[in-house]
Amino acid sequence: LIRGPKGTEVVLTVYRDGWDEPRDFKIIRDQITVKSLSWSYVNSGQTALIEVRQFNQDTLPLFENAINDIKKRSAVKSIILDLRNNPGGYLEVAVQMAGEWSGDGLVVSEKNRDGLETFHRAYISDRLKDYKTIVLINEGSASASEIVAGALKDWGKATLVGMKTFGKGSVQE
Hints:
Layout: E1 9-14, E2 23-28, E3 37-42, E4 47-52, H1 59-72, E5 78-82, H2 91-102, E6 105-111, E7 117-122, E8 132-137, H3 144-154, E9 159-162
Parallel strand pairs: 4-5, 5-8, 8-9
Antiparallel strand pairs: 1-2, 3-4, 6-7
């Protein structure tokens, strides 16, 4: 109900515990841009936390920045890759991201209805191969996030922690 043309006014009626009655707040609609990837450091700087919200056109450049930052910090010994509630996105982005743990490797194969198989390999350096990695997943992790999580698990590069993923199991163009 709050969506509408950018620059137009909308009134939100809010009620909170401790208030005698609801209050109206006038706000101006605007476009909200959320980066697909962010990173920070936890555990006294020993663990890099990489949160991937989706796999789109800005994900690989942001991931490149995160890797460069991680590699500059000698204290970093491990990585938490948070793919919870990640609906997926571009297959090629997921393939290249997974490759940072394995280098040149088969990330995923797909088979169409006619039985024709396509193999998706990462052709990239394995700059994250020496970091102990945990991948956080949940029922909102789908598609490309399942591919990354599954590849890292299959290669023995990460431990998956969380809940059963969405189970999309399909690729579309």
